[in-house]
Specification:
Elements: E1 14-21, E2 24-26, E3 31-42, E4 53-60, H1 69-85, E5 91-97, E6 101-105, E7 112-113, H2 116-127, H3 137-149, E8 155-162, H4 173-181, E9 186-192, H5 198-207, E10 212-215, H6 221-233, E11 240-246, E12 251-259, E13 263-264, E14 270-273, E15 276-280, E16 288-297, E17 308-317, E18 332-339, H7 342-346, H8 350-373, H9 377-394, H10 397-403, E19 407-408, E20 417-418, H11 424-431, E21 460-461, E22 468-469
Helix pairs in contact: 1-2, 1-6, 3-4, 8-9, 9-10
Length: 491
């Protein structure tokens, strides 16, 4: 079916959804129905050029960025690269982060409007950034909040780079800053070097609906910043809400994003009434995300052997301004079906199982990292070995590569051993990615077996009259003698 048309006859941007689940629950008591909601946006790319957005680029300029010298040089190039990607008309600022935050561009301390001249000026300023001072990430985020809150752009985003921990803010200051920033802008964060804290960076990106990751080599930073800003410039829809409407007696246990990164959204739900909750998902471009929801229900009073609607899942535009006309799909039903059939109720949909595997992988990576930090090398070895096996089953090449820097798997009997040259950067690069995931895809269908063509039977002569008959004939066409079957001439 064709999408509704917008101005000029072009198809409207559209969202499609798919809900995968196993509806069968054991009839003996309370059950939990798990489902994966796939949401795909198409056509927003045509609107990105007109989207009103604001960007803040925060670069760690603490003294530790001087060692090695390649780190600060890479940060300067990365900041300039991000500025180059800014779309004309985007409001932006460049912030120097030390034990305080200082807007280094534009010079008036506010925000500039991107254009050829301002991009060139900002890149020149980025090339002159100097490393000196401490690390106060809460102050950096508070500065970004002040800059972005002064703009009426509905899409607000920050890029943050650090090589250290939040050591120069007062205790609890980072948590308070995140509380203030949540819902006001999104933030992608990158750690460079080995002294930053993976849990801290993940906490920042998780609260601000972004992605945290490690820059594995200083030379990768410029391309990483360019890619992050390109992704930010592709956003065209300020917000999309996912609405879950429950039936009486059902409860929502949790709601989280599982692809491309895990974000627990349960606590961010906006309750519309006793049975309806909306979850904000942030700005969208042309992309696919997947979410997992779990609904619990009791069988008391429900009929057996029938599909029942436990919840209705739908999409709704967010309250932010600047929302373009959208074609939204009809709601999808999360079903339950009470059964005494153990085989039916214990089956797990492969898409649900895939993200369950990622949850296990994340727990194993985290348990190993925590054990290593407290000096429990044996537990770290065992947990990372389990993580290595799970990453292999999931086909996650990035995590396999990062875990391969922590353990070696070439020992006799399939055992893994800790590497002796493990660095803090190696630890952080695996730990920060424990919530990243790959999409589940349908396994390829096996090709049908080729059926060999029937063998042609050779003509044969009658032993009595000598008449030649076709190989498929069972009797001589001359005298009627029954012809004996042969291996090449079956009867």
């Amino acid at each position: 079916m064709s999408r509704a048309q917008g101005p000029g006859g072009a198809p409207r941007p559209a969202f499609t959804t798919r809900l995968d689940q196993n509806k069968y629950l054991p009839a003996g008591g309370k059950g939990s129905a798990h489902a994966i909601l796939t949401v795909e946006a198409d056509g927003l790319d045509r609107l990105a050029g007109r989207a009103d957005c604001a960007e803040v680029i925060v670069i760690d300029c603490s003294g530790s960025m001087n060692w090695p010298s390649t780190k600060m040089a890479a940060a300067r190039r990365a900041a300039a690269a991000a500025v180059e990607v800014l779309r004309d008309g985007t409001r932006f600022a460049l912030v120097e982060g030390t034990d305080r935050a200082r807007v280094v561009y534009p010079p008036d301390g506010r925000m500039a409007v991107a254009g050829p001249d301002s991009r060139g000026d900002a890149a020149h300023v980025a090339a002159g950034l100097v490393a000196a001072g401490g690390t106060a990430i809460a102050a950096w985020l508070t500065c970004a909040l002040g800059l972005l809150s002064a703009q009426d752009a509905p899409i607000r985003h920050a890029l943050l780079l650090t090589d250290g921990r939040d050591e120069h803010d007062r205790p609890g200051e980072l948590e308070r800053a995140l509380d203030a920033c949540a819902g006001r802008f999104t933030c992608d964060a990158r750690g460079i070097g080995g002294q930053w804290a993976a849990t801290e960076l993940r906490g920042i990106a998780g609260r601000l609906h972004g992605v945290a990751d490690a820059v594995e080599d200083d030379s990768d930073l410029e391309a990483e910043f360019r890619a992050m800003m390109t992704s930010a410039m592709a956003k065209a829809l300020p917000d999309l809400r996912i609405r879950v409407s429950l039936r009486e007696g059902s409860e929502l246990a949790f709601f989280k994003q599982v692809f491309p990164v895990e974000l627990d959204l349960t606590g961010e739900g906006v309750r519309l009434d006793d049975l309806t909750v909306e979850f904000p998902t942030g700005a969208w471009g042309d992309e696919t995300r997947e979410f997992q929801l779990c609904v619990t229900a009791e069988p008391a009073g429900d009929p057996r052997g029938r599909d029942l609607q436990a919840a209705l899942v739908s999409l709704a535009p967010g309250p932010a301004g600047g929302t373009p006309p959208l074609a939204l799909p009809p709601p999808g039903s999360l079903l339950i079906h009470w059964t005494d059939d153990h085989a039916l109720s214990t089956h797990v949909h492969p898409r649900v199982a895939h993200y369950g595997g990622y949850a296990d992988l994340g727990r194993a990576v985290t348990a190993g990292c925590e054990a290593y930090e407290r000096g429990d090398r044996e537990t770290a070895r065992a947990e990372w070995g389990r993580a290595l096996r799970l990453a292999g089953e999931l086909g996650d090449e990035k995590m396999l590569r990062r875990l391969g820097r922590l353990v070696r798997a070439d020992l006799p009997g399939g055992e893994v051993g800790l590497r002796g040259d493990l660095s803090p950067g190696d630890l952080n690069s695996a730990w920060v990615a424990e919530g990243h995931s790959t999409r589940w895809t349908e396994p390829p269908q096996p090709l049908p077996r080729a059926v060999p063509p029937p063998r042609e039977s050779a003509d044969r002569a009658c032993p009595r009259c000598g008449r030649v008959s076709a190989g498929t004939d069972q009797h001589c066409t001359g005298c009627g003698l029954a012809l004996t079957p042969t291996p090449g001439n079956p009867a």
